[in-house]
Structure formats: C-alpha cells, structure tokens
Amino acid sequence: MSEIYIMCVDDEPDVLEAVERDLSSFEDVFPLEAASSAEEARSVLQQIESKGDELAVIFCDHVMPGETGVELLEWMEQTDTFKNTRKALLTGQAGLDATIQAVNRASLDFYIQKPWTKDSLLSIARDLLTQYVLESGRNPLPYMTMLNAEEVAKAMHEGGLISDE
Amino acid sequence: MKAKTLIGLVLGLAAFLMAILNPLPGLSLAGSIALGIFLMAAVFWILEPIPIYATSMLVILLQVMLLSSQGLIFSVRNVPTVVLRETTGEFDFLAPASAISGEGFVYQKDADNALRQIAVEQLNIANAEWITIRSETIDPSLPLIQDANHRAITGGAYSYSKFYATLASPIIMLFLGGFALAASAVKFGLDKNLTRVLLKPFGSQPSSVCLGLMLCTGALSAFMSNTATTAMMMTVALPIVGSLPKADPFRKGVALAIPVAANIGGIATPIGTPPNAVALAALRDSGISISFASWMAMATPFAVILLIVAWRLVLWLFKPETDRFEINIKGKFQTSPKAIIAYLVFAGTILLWLTEKLHGISTSMVAFIPVALLPAFGVLDKKDIRGFSWEVLWLVAGGISLGLSMKDTGLASWLIGQVSWHSFGGLGVVIAFGLCGYILSNLISNTVTATIITPLAITVGVALSSQGGFNLVSAIVAITVMVSCSMILAISTPPNAIAMSCGIIDTKDLARSGLLVGLIGIVLAILMHLLYWPMLT
C-alpha cells in the first residue's frame, strides 16, 4: 500500500525542528518529510510522486529565500498528484496579497499564525488528514487512530466507504 | 507486488491448473473444471491477491467460458446434429438411436446454442439406426444432437445465461431491497433518530444504557449493514466514551458492545448480513424457500438471547466505575415529504415481509417494492443508487453461481464423498461444518466462508435428510449462524475492524470478549438446532 506523507517546509531550522517535534505522534501512520526551501520541497515531492506515494498535508512557510511558500502551493495546486493535498500556511509574514493569492490560486485550506501552540497544530493536522483520507476514497480504517474518529465513523455511515463482506 | 499477493496468485493458478490437468478418479471433466475454479476461488478469497468481489466476478467469467454449454469446452455450437423426421403420430418422431441417452433423454440446441434436455418415450425400434420417439414438448424445428454421449452433454452444462442470472436471483433482489431501505434510512436520519428515541427509556445507569445501545445496534443491524450500523453507533457513542475517565474499563466495554451487537444483530433477519443470503440461496436451490417471517422466527430469538448474554459478559469483563452514563443525541425526525415517504416505505415493506402468510407475496417479490418506489418518489436519487454496496451483490452472486456448478457437475457430491459423513451422525455434521465455518470466518470474510462451506453442507444435508431424521433447514441455519458468530479478531468482521480502529480497545480485549460471545453463540446454535428450530420447519 502506498504511503501517505505529511510535509513541513521552513527555512529556519529551529522552526522546522519544532514543527517536526510537535507532529511526531503522527509519524507511525503518516511519515513526515521536512524541507528547508521550496526547491528542496519540490525535489522531495518528485520523489514521493515517483514512488507512487501521496502527500496528505503540507505545512509551509511563506517568506523563504528563492521561491515563496505561496508559489510552491500554487504549483502543487496545478499538479494532478498534489492537487488534493491539504495546504496550510504556517507563517508570521504573509501579507494580505500573498494570503489572498494562496486562497484563490492554491485553494489554501488553513492559515496558521506563528507562534502556534502544539495542541492547535495537532488538531489542525488531524482535521486536514481526516479530510484528505476520506476524500481519497480509500479504506480509512488503517489510519483511523490518527484521524478524527467521529468524522470517519460519520463518513462510513453516510458514505458506505466499507461494506459487510 | 507484495509477496503475499504473488503467493496468492501463483497458488490459485496452480490449484486451477492442477485440478484440470490431473483429473481425479470419479470426477467428470466438468467436475474437474469446477474443482479448479473452486480451488482457485478459495485461494483467492482466503489470501486476497485480488479483491474478494473481483474473485467472484472471475468465477462467473470462468464458468461462462469453461462450463457453459456455449463455452470453450462444452460448446454445442459445432456438435453434429440431425433433423427430426416426422412420422405418423402427432407427437411421434424418428430419431437416430445414438441421440437417445441411456436415461431416455434426447438433446436439442436452440438459437442461443443453449442445450435442452427432453425426456422421450421410445415406442419401437424401426431399425437399428432410427427409433420412433414420442414427446409432447419436443420442438421439431430445433436441431437434435446426434450423439447423446457427446462431451458437451455429459458435461451437464448450463447455458451461460444461467450463471449471469445469479445476479438477478431472488435472494440478490431481496438484498437489493434491503440496500434501498437502508440507504433511505441513512439519508433521512431514520436510524439515528430511532436510536435517539429507543435509547431514552434506558436512562443514565451505565449497565442499562449499555443494554440499550446493544439492543438498538442489534435491531438496526438486522435491517441495515452491520458496518453502517457500527459506524453510526460509534458517532453516537464516541463523544460520551471520550468524556469518561481514561481508567474506567467501561470505555472499552462500550466500544466492544457495539461491534458485538452489530455482528449478532445481522443474524436476526434474512437481509441482516450476506451469509444469510448464501444460506437462503442454497436452500432455495434445493427447493426450500424460507419466508422473512420464518427466518426471523428462527433467528431472532437466537440473536436476542445472545445479545443479552453478551451484554452481561461485557459488563462482567469491563465493570463500569462511573455511575452515570448518558447518551444525548440531538435531532428530531425529519418531516419533509420525502422523509415521510421513506418512513412509510420502510414500515410498509417490513410489514409485508412479516405478513407473507396473509397475502402470499413472497419475500423476494416484496423486496422490489422499495427498489422501485423509493427512486420513483425521488427519495433515492441516482447518486444514492450508485452508493449501494454492489460489490457485495457480486460477491454473493459469484458464490451462488459457483454453488450451481458444484452441485450440477457432481463436484459437491464428489468432494463430500471423500469423507464418510454418515459416521458423524446428523448432529456431528452440523457441528463439524459449523466449527469449520466459525474458525474460517474468524480469519476471512463471513460471506466467503459461507460461500465455500454451504454448497458442501447442503449436499451432505440433502443426503442425510433423504434418509429421514435430519432437519435440513435447521442444520443450514445453525451452520450459517455459527459463521456469523466469528468476532475474535479485528479482521473477523468489518464492525470489529471499525471498533479496533477507534483506538479505545486493543487486540486482547477484542479476542477475549469475541471468543466468549462466539463460543456461547455456538453452544446456543447447537441447542436451538436440537430443541427449537426443528419445531418450526
């Protein structure tokens, strides 16, 4: 079965480390990838794509040397493999224009203002992962411990994701 | 490709080829092919290199291509034929001696290359080659097969359309009706609202709320899929379970009570769970049809008793520490015209199912009322219809189709002939099949288990019941019920898998309670088979 990844992109090593630490509880089910620039992120994305794996959620900084976070998200929105990836900006410096662009052109799913709290990040990650897995139409049970169980149960009840066999 | 997938594919194909290329003594060519398909399907169903419904579809394809009277092996397309010669009498014809089988049948092929078997009376031997035969049903315009011992005839082949027809068999239509009802109930929140109302009288005492939850789950899963019921109950119970202290064993108790009750509830009605369909189809094929009400008369008392035992067991294993456990479900019954129609059709269909004795319209015929009326009133739209679990219907249809060939090619009789069942006695046969089914269905899908063992069980059963003193219906119900009692592992049933995935219970909790409930279920099934069910049939 293909892996479903979570990715964090930030040019500040301290921030990247903190996000990784906060999200480490997901790692058994959703492996975590980190990148320190949009360019590095792209090469990781290409690896994920070439293995036939998927990216469920990306937490991305905006202001980085080289390509910006919003540009990266916009590019992802235009590729088939990462169109359905849930996209979150984790930033302190995205201006109104960049944010509007992210919402309109990259279907931004969440805007997280730095500094964040661990609990809020966890609950946002959980909700975004749940949305992704349910939308993908795959059997959600192997991932359910890390998802919003109530939402998954509701989708299984209403959507008939799995049936009696 | 994963190793398990590869092993499954190789083993399955090897079994298929082995059976066909090494004919076993006593088995006809058609029987060998049926054995090959059976073994391959069993391997595929157990190891799942391809999805189990895909295996069922493959079974039908192989039957159509290899076992039908139009297929690659038993085709009558190129078989030499002759034209019947008219003679003096109205129903008398002249046929070549070779065209009449030892049992006194002649065979014709129709426009669709399907084989017709016609019993004839042999009047006189005109000469060595041509015999005068008499039959009122023979159609003189159709070609007569020249050699009654041709491979295409001794294969005992069906027209391919017979295999396709299993998808529209009355039992499949019964399930389709169940799916339509369940879909409308989910769409308009009937199941959740019923739960809200039914749970109220159980108050806030943990043990009685637990009983309420289990009875509700059981009642709903008798009419809806066990999986959908479990999912719905989890949405109701999870928030409250989450609010209990982490150390309270009752958290686990509630999370276990729901899947256990859903598994048991499925037993209660014909449409409760797909293994019931397999049993009903097999009985039907042996000329016994069972109404909705008579299945319920047999299975519902079983389910209710087992539910209550399971309730006490859950409370004993996971004694509540909290003294208050209240489930408050928000909502009210929808009153839009479509919702009202959904309620009426639901109630009306069940009422008609239960009153077959009064009106004589069979269960499977009634089942088409919701299928036709719900879309007609716009209660279900095309998206809802697409949402039915069609793969389950294919799964069951493939099983019914395989059962046809097993019976018809003599494979089932041959297989059971390998064991001297008479030495087991009637009860021994039920226990042996029931236990095999129970063990197998803990590891693989219940429906697949029923599909594999029911054709064999019914063949033994028919042989035993022809000698008297053996109640076939009771035996098949007992075996089917035991298959549904499997709930030890997360993989045993989808409700177990859902409960495990919620992260409240672990493998050990499930194994302990699942094993106990299952074993009690088996004992109860045997007792009812001995004491209660034979009284009803």
Main sheet record of chain B: 4 strands, antiparallel
Structure class of chain A: alpha/beta
Multimer state: heterodimer
Give me the strand/helix succession of chain A: EHEHEHEHEHH
**Count of helix runs of chain A:** 6
Please give the order of strands in the largest beta sheet of chain B: 2-3-7-6
Q: Calculate the terminal CA-CA distance of chain A, rounded to whole Å.
A: 21 Å
Q: Tell me the radius of gyration of chain B.
A: 26 Å
Largest sheet properties of chain A: 5 strands, parallel
Strand segment count of chain A: 5
Q: Which class best fits the helix and strand makeup of chain B?
A: mainly alpha
Q: Helical region count of chain B?
A: 25
CATH class bucket of the domain at 81-154 in chain B: Mainly Beta
Mean pLDDT of chain A: 92
> What's the CATH H-level superfamily name of chain A?
Response regulator
Overview of the structural elements:
- The complex is a heterodimer of chains A (165) and B (537).
- Chain A has 165 residues and is α/β, with parallel strands linked by helices.
- Chain A has a single domain (4-159), classed as Response regulator (Rossmann fold, 3-Layer(aba) Sandwich).
- Chain A is 45% helix and 16% strand.
- Chain A has six helices and five strands, in the order βαβαβαβαβαα.
- Chain A has helices spanning 13-22, 38-50, 69-78, 96-106, 118-136, 149-159, and strands spanning 4-9, 32-35, 54-60, 86-91, 110-113.
- In chain A, α1 links the parallel β1 (4-9) and β2 (32-35).
- The longest helix of chain A is centred in the last third of the chain and has 19 residues, at 118-136.
- Chain A starts with a strand and ends in a 6-residue tail after the last helix.
- With 537 residues, chain B is mostly helical.
- Chain B has a domain at 81-154: conserved putative lor/sdh protein from methanococcus maripaludis s2 fold (Beta Barrel).
- Chain B is built from 25 helices and eight strands.
- Chain B has helices spanning 3-21, 29-47, 52-67, 151-154, 160-165, 170-187, 190-199, 206-221, 226-243, 250-265, 274-285, 292-317, 337-354, 356-359, 363-366, 368-376, 382-386, 390-408, 411-417, 425-443, 446-466, 472-484, 494-501, 507-531, 533-536; strands at residues 81-82, 85-86, 92-96, 105-109, 115-119, 121-125, 130-134, 144-145.
